[in-house]
Each structure stands twice: as C-alpha cells, then as structure tokens.
Recover the amino acids of this structure.
C-alpha cells in the first residue's frame, strides 16, 4: 500500500481577502469554523442553477470544475460585544456572545470557544496542470484552527431589526 | 440592549461546496506542525492481506495511521450530530442571491446602510465528522508485517534458490531504495520501522534486490562465529573494536565467509549500544561497542528461540543455561541467568524445562489479560462510547 503524503502547508495559499471576523478568529488563510446544532438546508444544486440561468454567472476563481459559484445569503453574523477599535486584544468577554440571524426573524445565540485540540483543515492537494491522471493522491493542511464559533441552541424568534 | 451599533457580517452559503476533512491535533503534533520547518506527514495503511487483486483494496484495510518521521497515530473517524462549517471571507466575486430575504435591502431595493456587503463570510464546506488521532495502548505490532515483506534467511541456500527461480523482479540494487520501499509498506513512522528492522536483524542483499530476515538459527550461527572469531583474533568484545577486523576473523583462508557481511553487520548492530536509528540507512558500521546487557539478553532469547521455539520442543533448563554461557564471550559467562531474559519471551512449561514464547503467542496472551472491566469504566468516564462498545463486542465473541 503506497503511503499518502500529507503536506504541512498549502501549495497555493489562497489570496488574501479582507477578513471581517474579530482578530482572534482570523487565520492566515482566512478560514474559520462555525458549529451548529443541525444543518443549514440549502435548496438543491438544480434549483440554484435554474436561478442562475436567468442572470449572469461568472465562474468564480479557485473553482476546479469550472462550475459557477453561487452564494446564497443566509443571514447575518454579529459579535455584539466586540468592536475592532475598543476591544483590547486580551479581553475575552466579547467571546461569550455571538448572534447569527437566519433570515429576518430568527436569531441564534452562541459563543466563541477555544477548541480543546486544534483542528487541521485538510484537503486534497490540487494537481498541477499537466500532471499525469494516475498521479498519486496528495493531501495538504490548509489551515490549523484553534477557535470555533459555536451555536448550541436553537433559533429564537426576533423582530425585524 | 441594542445590537444596531454592532458590526454585521453577511453570512452566505457557497455552492458548490468544497471537500475538507478536519483532523484533531494532539498537542505534540500541533507543536510539530507549528514549527518553522514542519515535516511532511504520511498516511499509511497496511497492505491488504489477500493477494487477490480483484478485491477492492478499500474493504480490506482495517486501519489507517498517520505518521510523523518519528511517531505514529491511529486515525479514527468520529461522527457528530452537529455540523461544522468551514467559513472563509468572501471576495465578493461570486453572484449572490436575493438579499431581501435577510432584510439586507429595504423595500425600495436600497441597501440597509449598516450592512456593508464587502464584509461577508461564506460557508464553503460542511463536515459531519472529524478525524481523531490516538495511540493504541497495545502498540502497533509491526514486526509480523515487516517480516512478511522480507525473505526468510536460514542459510545461503535460500538466496541461491530465490535467485534461481528467476521470478524475482530486481527493481533496484540500491540498498537505501530497497529499504525505503519496504518501509513505505509498513504502516508506522520511519523511526519505528528502523527500530523494528534493527530488532529483527533484517538486512538487504543488494544483489537479490530485496530485504531478508534471518531465522533464529541463522542469527545464533552468526553470533557463535563472531565469538569464536573474536577469540582467535584476540578481539575483546567488551571494548570498542573495529567491525572490519571482526569480519575478517569470520572468513576462512580463502577469504570466503559462511554468512553475508550484511547479515553479520545486522547481528553486530543488534547487540551494540543503541545509537541513533536514523543513521540506519547510512553506510556501514566502522567502530562498534557492544552493550553487555543487551547482548546477553539477545543471545539468550535468540538461542532459546532457535533451540526451543514451542512448548513441545522445550529444553532442559541447565542445558539451556550452559549453551547460553557457551555463546557469550568468556568474561560474561556469569551474566547468563533467567532473570536476564525478558519476562514474556520465555516460559517454563514444566519444572525442569524452558521454551520460547513467540510474538504471536505473546499477543494472544496479552489480549486475554487485558482487563475489560477497567477498560469499560475508563470508556464510560471519558464518554467514549466507541471504546465501550468495542469491548463488549469482543466479549461476546
């Protein structure tokens, strides 16, 4: 059985995008983790493709299949006790409260938690163009994440804000 | 309290989703990966035991290990009822759906002022399970796997037989390449492979293009010759000596040896002071200095394995002790006592005899001895139900 290499760093680090999360949750690649009880139900792929056919659908960058990238708005994420200007770096009180609005009238309350053990986000390494198809599989660690945004309770109804 | 003033981040879901796995990192591994120059890790699984090629390889794998250069962890997939989403900041390059559903626009399609759309986090993947790493208590027991990949060497006849067959493909005659290829098939880290390699006195015969493991008989034969040669040449095995000189003492008048030099070096390396196993793949031994304790134990156990491999073939105790003494350099004869042997490598089937306990039997014994009760309470405490039920299943069988 051939061994599969797991590279400790990503081969092509993703382009830097302005990261709106609090400093503590920012990682070099921008990736972050959000844990929910249950799942986010999104209309199936066919549906969103139908929607798209009406409008223009530019293929997003970094998409290996060339399939159109489509973002479905779900809600808003809020760190009510955090302010980039006024929260001291060693202040952790803001971590106790995070809101996730789903649609307009539901809100989940959660918190930012330090993971008991850091999690490595692993993906299949993208093959270089021209590499043989039967080239062996390689994996890479894209990011190591130490915190997660955690919503353990169900959504509660709220007024439109 | 108003949340109006707080910053809102638009949260979206990106389709198609990407494939990620989440791997929990124990502290030592996390530290290793955070270092300036982290090594490439390896994911290894055992070679399927069935030789039939039509069986899909995936079903025959029973475990997968993650290896650093020096350590091995077993990977276990843990399902979770919660879903972990991987988020990344959105670059705004993709098309968005109807923002009105979340109240980001007002009735007249004017954007709500406090929601800055460039501040977007998007979910790009969902993981329903994580991968946990743990180190099995019973160890990895890789020696049988390693031995399975090697030819059994009892005497030089084995070599001539296997080369006469012609069925052997000689891929490479480079020693280093051969060893690396072998280690790729052993599902633990290279350091652990190298230790096991040294432990069983494995060696490569470059001409045959493969690795060999000597039988206990062959090892005893080589060692006996070493002791005799040392006496003839006046080499004191208790001090540092030149390996080349010792090798010359083993050759006859025509410069021919009964054993291959590679095997000789493997045996000498086995009884020497433990050095850095990482150097295993480099050049030949020059200077050696034998570790008395290690040597006495190894000689006793190897001789016992050769003379009395099973309880049925047990030998008399005093007979064994005398033979053991005869296989040691003169000054070490008194060292040969039963207390020097590893506890679980020998047993006394009746009051006068002694026999060897093979690795296989030892594993069986260990499994029976493992206290299932304590394991299940530990499992309950850690709320690790996986472990708890595993033990119950085993008891039923």
């Amino acid at each position: 059985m051939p061994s599969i290499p797991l590279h400790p760093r990503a081969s092509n680090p993703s382009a830097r995008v302005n990261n709106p999360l609090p400093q503590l949750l920012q990682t070099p690649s921008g990736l972050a983790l959000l844990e929910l009880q249950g799942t986010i139900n999104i209309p199936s792929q066919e549906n969103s493709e139908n929607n798209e056919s009406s409008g223009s659908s530019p293929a997003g960058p970094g998409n290996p299949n060339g399939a159109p990238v489509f973002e479905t708005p779900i809600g808003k994420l809020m760190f009510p006790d955090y302010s980039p200007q006024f929260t001291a770096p060693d202040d952790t009180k803001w971590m106790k409260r995070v809101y996730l609005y789903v649609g307009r009238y539901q809100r989940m309350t959660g918190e930012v938690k330090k993971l008991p053990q850091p999690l490595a986000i692993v993906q299949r390494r993208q093959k270089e163009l021209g590499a043989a198809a039967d080239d062996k599989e390689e994996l890479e660690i894209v990011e190591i994440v130490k915190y997660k945004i955690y919503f353990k309770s169900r959504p509660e109804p709220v007024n439109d804000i | 309290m108003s949340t109006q003033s707080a910053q809102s981040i638009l949260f979206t879901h990106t389709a198609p989703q990407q494939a990620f796995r989440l791997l929990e990192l124990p502290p030592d591994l996390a530290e290793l990966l955070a270092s300036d120059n982290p090594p490439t890790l390896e994911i290894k699984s055992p070679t399927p035991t069935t030789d039939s090629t039509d069986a899909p390889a995936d079903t025959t794998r029973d475990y997968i290990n993650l290896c650093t250069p020096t350590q091995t962890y077993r990977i276990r997939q843990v399902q979770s009822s919660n879903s972990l989403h991987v988020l990344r900041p959105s670059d705004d390059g993709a098309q968005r759906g109807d923002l009105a559903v979340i109240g980001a626009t007002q009735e007249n399609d004017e954007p709500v002022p406090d929601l800055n759309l460039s501040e977007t986090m998007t979910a790009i993947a969902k993981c329903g399970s994580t991968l946990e790493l743990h180190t099995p208590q019973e160890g990895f027991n890789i020696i049988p796997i390693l031995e399975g990949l090697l030819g059994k060497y009892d005497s030089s006849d084995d070599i001539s037989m296997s080369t006469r067959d012609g069925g052997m493909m000689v891929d490479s005659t480079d020693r280093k390449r051969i060893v690396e290829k072998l280690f790729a098939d052993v599902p633990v880290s290279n350091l652990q492979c190298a230790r096991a390699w040294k432990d069983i006195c494995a060696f490569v015969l470059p001409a045959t293009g493969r690795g060999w493991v000597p039988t206990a008989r062959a090892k005893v034969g080589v060692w006996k010759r070493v002791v005799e040669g040392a006496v003839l040449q006046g080499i004191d095995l208790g001090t540092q000596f030149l390996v080349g000189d010792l090798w010359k003492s083993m050759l006859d008048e025509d410069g021919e040896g009964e054993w291959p030099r590679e095997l000789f070096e493997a045996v000498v390396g086995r009884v020497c002071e433990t050095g850095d196993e990482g150097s295993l793949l480099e050049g030949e031994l020059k200077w050696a200095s034998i570790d008395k304790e290690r040597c006495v134990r190894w000689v006793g156990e190897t001789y016992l394995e050769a003379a009395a491999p099973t309880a049925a073939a047990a030998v008399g105790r005093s007979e064994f002790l005398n033979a053991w003494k005869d296989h040691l350099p003169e000054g070490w004869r008194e060292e040969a006592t039963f207390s020097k042997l590893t506890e679980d490598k020998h047993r006394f089937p009746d009051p006068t005899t002694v026999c060897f306990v093979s690795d296989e039997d030892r594993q069986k014994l260990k499994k029976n001895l493992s206290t299932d009760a304590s394991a299940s309470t530990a499992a309950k405490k850690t709320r690790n139900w996986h472990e708890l039920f595993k033990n119950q299943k085993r008891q039923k069988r």
Remarks:
- Chain B touches chain A through 76 residues (CB under 8 Å).
